[in-house]
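Subject: design request, 105 residues
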């Protein structure tokens, strides 16, 4: 999964698929849609080698006078910056959203 920053705010999903799709089959593009996430996106490729190629080619790419920042997304790094309480709260929220209570049956 690639994490893309510094995107133009007016970029569309179709444009993202057009730009990133040149490097391989894309499973999903998730665009930031809140004030804090606008201008960023996650791009999920079917194949890790396609993601690696896209990251190498598009990091620093000038798109509408903005230079893209393309990195691999590392969930573990984000979790390591979170306190145990924050991680537990996030887990509770995911369980609630999925409709599970977290107990093992």
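Subject: RE: design request

Done. Sequence follows.
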């Amino acid at each position: 999964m690639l994490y893309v920053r510094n995107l133009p705010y007016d970029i569309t999903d179709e444009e993202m698929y057009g730009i990133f799709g040149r490097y391989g089959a894309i499973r999903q593009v998730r665009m930031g849609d809140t004030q804090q996430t606008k201008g960023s996106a996650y791009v999920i490729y079917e194949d890790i080698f396609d993601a690696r190629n896209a990251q190498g080619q598009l990091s620093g790419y000038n798109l509408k006078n903005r230079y893209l920042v393309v990195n691999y997304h590392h969930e573990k790094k984000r979790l390591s910056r979170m306190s145990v309480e924050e991680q537990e709260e996030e887990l509770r929220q995911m369980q609630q959203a999925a409709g599970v209570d977290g107990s093992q049956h």
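Helices lie at 13-20, 48-58, 75-81, 84-98.
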